[in-house]
């Protein structure tokens, strides 16, 4: 069908507020220009989403019929992500093609294929996909960096988890455990009940603050500590909504956000942590002896490189230090607190497992201080934690 319209409107009427042009299509029906434009826009949007959401069909990958612009995201109003993924795998098999908004996502639940992606063919899958633009600082996090930048950060930061570093962190962790034990015995001597997520959340925050930043925040005892309050904003996710949705619907916007340096993290939040890290760095300059935490490890790095713009850089840039400190906190907090919380739930509901675990700890450690070696010797604990992680994965995907 061919649409024709006269450039000169056949009718024109106007009042004080607006003028509406009437067009004729094929000389038969008259439509106002705005309606015509609206239809054109809606049609383009529909074609856009239909094109974006045709990838898996073209490749012959099974999956659910996507909802325009939302893909499978409308399901998240009713179910959580884990449940959605499980249902999809039950219905469509081990490899499912879905759309997160207009972004094609392949769900893989085949162990062999996962191994191929993450090990054998890893060089083809180095980068995580740019789901959203996380802002200038967070874009320097090891999870968001690309290619050689990723490789550099990964190699620089990995030693944090070396045996030697972990051994040095044990006294810091022990301090936080002691505080937690005090609270537990105080509550239990009064016969009071406890919200475990809050307890383990506070404990985890304290461990991260001390092992990553060398800070004593004691969130278990001062839940209103500004560090804790700001950290909590990160996990509420309340600020991500509209920007996130916009990028899911129009994936190319990610590039625009990158160019304009628009971050969906509130500026006040980033400035607060920047300030904390700045002060800590300043303190380190005065007392450079501390050599056990993550921040120090980053400060000590003196590897040299040239960035993509040909600029010579020694060590880590400020943004790399900020971004990776925040990632350390973001990645460590909820995952650990949830695992401990579900672990305590599993022990409460499986008293025989609890007895066995107590028996092992009494046998291997008893009253000795916790050390890297004696914790590593707890085989049953290791099995227990693995099972908790299998049953209650702390993060989806
Ligand atoms: C992986 O990348 C290499 C070169 O970078 C290419 O030759 C190869 O075909 C890729 N493999 C797959 C499965 O795409
Ligand atoms: C942190 O220090 C850097 C470099 O000295 C400075 O540019 C930045 O403004 C400081 N940030 C805050 C929040 O004070």
UniProtKB/TrEMBL annotation:
The keyword RNA-binding does not apply. Coiled coil: none annotated. The keyword Oxidoreductase applies. Its main location: endoplasmic reticulum. It holds the Pfam family p450. Its cofactor is heme. The chain crosses the membrane at residues 25-48. It is found in: Endoplasmic reticulum membrane; Microsome membrane. InterPro entries: Cyt_P450, Cyt_P450_E_CYP3A, Cyt_P450_E_grp-II, Cyt_P450_sf, Cytochrome_P450_3A. Keywords: Endoplasmic reticulum, Heme, Iron, Membrane, Metal-binding, Microsome, Monooxygenase, Oxidoreductase, Transmembrane, Transmembrane helix. Belongs to the cytochrome P450 family. This is Cytochrome P450.
């Amino acid at each position: 069908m061919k649409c024709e319209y006269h450039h000169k409107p056949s009718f024109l009427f106007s009042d004080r507020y607006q003028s509406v042009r009437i067009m004729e299509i094929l000389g038969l029906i008259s439509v106002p220009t705005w309606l015509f434009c609206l239809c054109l826009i809606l049609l383009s949007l529909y074609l856009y989403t239909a094109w974006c959401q045709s990838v898996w069909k073209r490749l012959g990958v099974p999956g659910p019929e996507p909802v325009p612009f939302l893909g499978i995201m409308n399901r998240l109003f009713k179910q959580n992500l884990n449940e959605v993924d499980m249902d999809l795998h039950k219905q469509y098999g081990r490899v499912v093609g879905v759309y997160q908004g207009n972004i094609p996502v392949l769900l893989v639940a085949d162990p062999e294929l996962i191994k191929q992606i993450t090990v054998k063919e890893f060089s083809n899958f180095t980068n995580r996909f740019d789901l959203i633009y996380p802002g200038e600082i967070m874009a320097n996090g090891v999870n968001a960096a690309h290619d050689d930048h990723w490789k550099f950060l990964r190699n620089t930061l990995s030693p944090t988890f070396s045996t030697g570093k972990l051994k040095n962190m044990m006294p810091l962790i022990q301090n936080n455990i002691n505080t937690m034990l005090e609270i537990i015995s105080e509550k239990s001597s009064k016969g009071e009940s406890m919200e475990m997520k809050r307890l383990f959340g506070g404990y985890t925050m304290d461990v991260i603050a001390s092992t990553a930043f060398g800070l004593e925040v004691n969130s278990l005892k001062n839940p209103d500590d500004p560090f804790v309050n700001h950290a909590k904003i990160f996990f509420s996710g309340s600020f991500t909504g509209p920007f996130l949705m916009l990028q899911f619907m129009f994936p190319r916007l990610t590039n625009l956000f990158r160019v304009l340096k628009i971050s969906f993290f509130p500026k006040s939040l980033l400035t607060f942590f920047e300030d904390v890290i700045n002060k800590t760095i300043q303190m380190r300059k005065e007392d450079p002896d501390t050599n056990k935490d993550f921040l120090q490890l980053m400060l000590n790095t003196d590897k040299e490189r040239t960035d993509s713009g040909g600029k010579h850089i020694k060590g880590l840039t400020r943004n790399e230090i900020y971004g990776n400190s925040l990632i350390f906190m973001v990645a460590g907090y909820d995952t650990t607190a949830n695992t401990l919380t579900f672990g305590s739930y599993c022990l409460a509901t499986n008293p025989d497992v609890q007895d066995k675990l107590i028996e092992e700890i009494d046998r291997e450690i008893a009253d000795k201080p916790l050390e890297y070696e004696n914790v590593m010797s707890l085989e049953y604990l290791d099995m227990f934690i693995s099972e908790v992680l299998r049953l209650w994965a702390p993060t989806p995907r």
